[in-house]
Specification:
Chain A: InterPro entries: 4Fe4S_Fe-S-bd, 4Fe4S_Fe_S_CS, HdrC_iron-sulfur_subunit, Helical_ferredxn. Chain A: Pfam families: Fer4_8. Chain A: This is Heterodisulfide reductase subunit C. The complex is a heterodimer. Chain A is mostly helical. Chain A folds into 2 domains: 107 residues, Fumarate Reductase Iron-sulfur Protein, Chain B, domain 2 (Orthogonal Bundle), CATH 1.10.1060; 111 residues, no CATH class. In chain A, helix 2 packs across helix 8, helix 10 packs parallel to helix 15 and helix 14 runs antiparallel to helix 15. Chain A starts with 13 loop residues before the first helix and ends with a helix. Chain B has 9 helices and 18 strands. In chain B, the strands form 5 sheets. A 5-stranded parallel sheet of chain B has the order 3-2-1-7-18, with helices on one face. A 5-stranded parallel sheet of chain B has the order 9-16-10-11-12. In chain B, helix 1 packs across helix 4, helix 1 packs parallel to helix 9 and helix 6 packs parallel to helix 7. Chain B is elongated, with a radius of gyration of 22 Å. The chains are: A mainly alpha, B alpha/beta.
Chain lengths: 242, 352
Amino acid sequence: MDGHPYGYNLPISEKTKAVPWEEKVRIVEEVKSDFRFKEYIFGCLNCGVCTASCPSNRFFDYSPREIVQRFLEEDVEVLYDMMHEYIWACSQCFTCWIRCPFVNNPGGLVAIMREVAVRNAFEATKDLLKPYGRVLLKVMTTGNQLSADMLQPDFFPDWGPKMADNMENLRAKRLAIPFDVGKSVKTAWEVSLETAIEMYTIWRETGIFEMLEKLDPNLYNVIMDIVEENEERYEELYEEEE
Amino acid sequence: MSKSVLVIGGGPAGLAAARALGRLGVPTILIEKDGQLGGNPIKNHYHTLIPRKLKPSQVIGPYIRDVEQNPNVKVLLNTELTACEGEPGSYKVSLSNGEKHEVGAIIVATGFEHFDPRRKGELGYGLYPDVITNLELEKMFSQEGKLYRPSNGQLPKRVAFVFCVGSRDRQLGVTNVHCCRYGCALSGLQGMEIREHYPDVDVFCYYMDVRTYGTWEYPFYWAPQEQYGVRYVRGRIAEITYSPADGRLRVKHEDTIVQRPAEVPMDLVVLVLGMEPSSGTKKVAKILGLAQDPDSQFLIPSEESGSNIVSNKPGIFIAGACKGPIDIESSFSEGEAAAAEAAAFIGAKVAV
């Protein structure tokens, strides 16, 4: 139990213990200074409605009540440790929020903690985001989450043997769809260059590119190649029009 | 200055005020919007009253009888206040029966209403017949004299009390953050009554904390556990569902003391209802211009007087559950205190 007699039953990891106290305080303070923080936590009666309503609680060692309690206790050590694994079990459904008699938002607190973890390039976030590299690439370059060409037989073995056949001749199958879906296999729907450029501007202005560079430099380079290519195309078009 | 007093509301506080004024020899008009006196305890067929475990007929009966028999008290049933003009000491009141009166003082005892549990959809009230309110359980005891599951008429094996339904809950808005005060004690009493008559029925109380304040602690919290084996589980019920497989309800909660999420079968679930200001209280507050709590809408006394009975309007006194959750016996006391204040205000020469 490692000095935590109830609730957060995971022992504090050696990694967390090795981190200087000031650094842990800095991280927790970064979470608490988020503008949403004050609207997400009020008081707590420990009634357990959040945890009882929590779908993740049924399958994982995760309790929204624990999140709220640790913030109220200002338990820096546990909060810092939670940000590496514990909080990633939350499915962000916010049932805790719509049930809490105080209208605390444990799911919202988790969202802030995750953002801080990503911003600070926690090792855990790198590992957690790895399986989503393909999705991230699509979203950041096209705004599409999924596309036909992402459905590859060996990616979804649980979908059954028929799936392999379905993946063949994707382009022809897409073209055969009797309504307009962009007729592309690379995106789920067509994204205009203007839209893509606006999106890149948002990524740039909100620091998303920077965040990604810290998390996954390889993916960042791949994405930036596409982004820059599109930006050049846009520039050329713009000049032509002028 | 008129020498008569208008009492609005024929529940415990209003009855106590009217009875005391009648005994003091003050001409009193008691108006009640329902067709009978007694307020919620009589209207809703309460079975046993906390804290003295007496029947409503034993506690409220004498007040009703005295009020009806006292020649100084004029009782008007099915009557509401519709308008009020004039100055303190000579309020000109209009009633829904067309009568107009001039009164020296007014006592407001317009009471509360129980929370409508349909507003908490996740608790399944109105959806599953075996989810009932504590009012319906009282009525079951008092009118039918037996405990049963509405779905099949059978005796339940496991009964759960769900505390704080419509109380201490900001999800319903700022209006329902207050505590109902009576719920914990009544549930202890109802649990004991079930265990006394049906020792094989398991009774569980799901609570956030148990507020059997003052002298109620032993009789309504410790005794249910020590003497009757009522079980207390700490955790607010998150939702109630139904399993067609066994025809029983499931209550979902986290036992926050032993840190364990649970979903347990129940045959009968009793929702412990909160209190809200009655529609009459809100209406009368508007007509008379009485100060209300901005959140709960209950009436609030004047700050200057220091008294809990004196309203912000001179000559208007407030008593009982129109000011917030209160038990029946305290309502009587407040009604009696309001009568004394009203008599003093009109300068009544009291009969000795």
